[in-house]
Amino acid sequence: MTAPTGSDKELWQLVQANDRHAFGVLFERHAEAVYNYSFRRTADWAAAEDLVSSVFLEAWRRRADLELTSQSERLLPWLLGVATNLLRTRNRSAARLARALLRERTGSDEPDFADDAVRRVADAQRMKAVLSLIRALPRGTQDVLALYAWAGLSYEEVSASLGIPIGTVRSRLSRARLYLEKLEPVIVPRKESEVPNEAW
Questions:
Q1: Which 8-state DSSP code applies to residue 137?
Q2: What is the pLDDT of residue 185?
Q3: What is the C-alpha separation between 24 and 45, in angstroms, rounded?
Q4: Distance in angstroms (rounded) separating the CA atoms of residues 98 and 42
Q5: Can you say whether residue 6 is alpha, beta or left, with left for phi > 0 and alpha for psi between -120 and 50 degrees?
Q6: Of 3.40.50.720, 3.30.230.10, 1.10.10.10, 1.10.150.120, which CATH number belongs to 138-200?
Q7: What is the rounded average pLDDT of the residues 181-193?
Q8: What are 106-132's pLDDT values in tens digits?
Q9: Strand residue runs (E) in 52-99
């Protein structure tokens, strides 16, 4: 059977009718973005994989509760909001967990996978260093920054994802920018079409 295709909104309506094929299409469409966002928030590959599973399990469980409207026709902002909430509740000390998992991973000797292991550890160490800088920001500002800069959501999508006003998104990003400008070599990706010159 061929899996259905279409917009997120169309597929989600099928998911609400318990269509597992439509859910699989949405998984294929958004799992990588959820995974990348989760890794950037945890600095740990295994934790990111677990979060992807948890996010999509939560999406399936709550399929009857979520309506995609004309303002939120993409499922990704909602999925990343779920990921953010799971990160808050399941990993309040992301840096401590990342250090513990990194120590455990580097302590094992797997010569067949040495190159891949070195690359993954280096990626985790770089992400851990970034997280140690970002951790100085308030939790809400960290969430907004991660969704905007790392997940590529628009101001409107960040607002919908976290359930906060768009003005709050703008002010938190402005505070994050001022903080990050003092740091080197941390660079926050810009979306020139969305961001006024005076704000970024």
A1: S
A2: 46
A3: 22
A4: 6
A5: left
A6: 1.10.10.10
A7: 50
A8: 554 444 455 565 566 666 767 777 777
A9: none
Contacting residues for 94 by C-beta, under 8 A, at least 6 apart: 41, 42, 43, 87, 131
* Dihedral in degrees, nearest 10, Cα atoms 55, 60, 61, 65: 100
Intra-chain end-to-end CA distance of the chain, in Å? 48
Look at residues 86, 69, 56, 83 and name the one whose alpha carbon lies nearest to residue 150: 83
DSSP 3-state percent helix, strand, coil across the chain (nearest 5): 70, 0, 30
List, in order, residues 6 or more apart from 43 with CB less than 8 Å away: 94, 95, 98, 102, 124, 125, 127, 128, 130, 131
State both tokens at 171: 């002010």
pLDDT tens profile 92-106: 554 454 455 556 555
Residue 99, number of CB atoms within 10 A of its CB: 15
Domain with CATH 1.10.10.10 in the chain: 138-200
> What letter does residue 71 receive in the DSSP assignment?
S
Place of tokens 């703008």: 170
Q: φ, ψ for residue 2 (rounded to 5)?
A: -80, 135
What is the C-alpha to C-alpha distance for residues 153 and 123, in angstroms, rounded to an integer?
A: 23
> Is the bond preceding 138 in cis, omega lying within 30 degrees of 0?
no
Helix (H) or strand (E) holding 30: helix 20-42
Distance from C-alpha of 117 to C-alpha of 45, rounded to nearest angstrom: 11
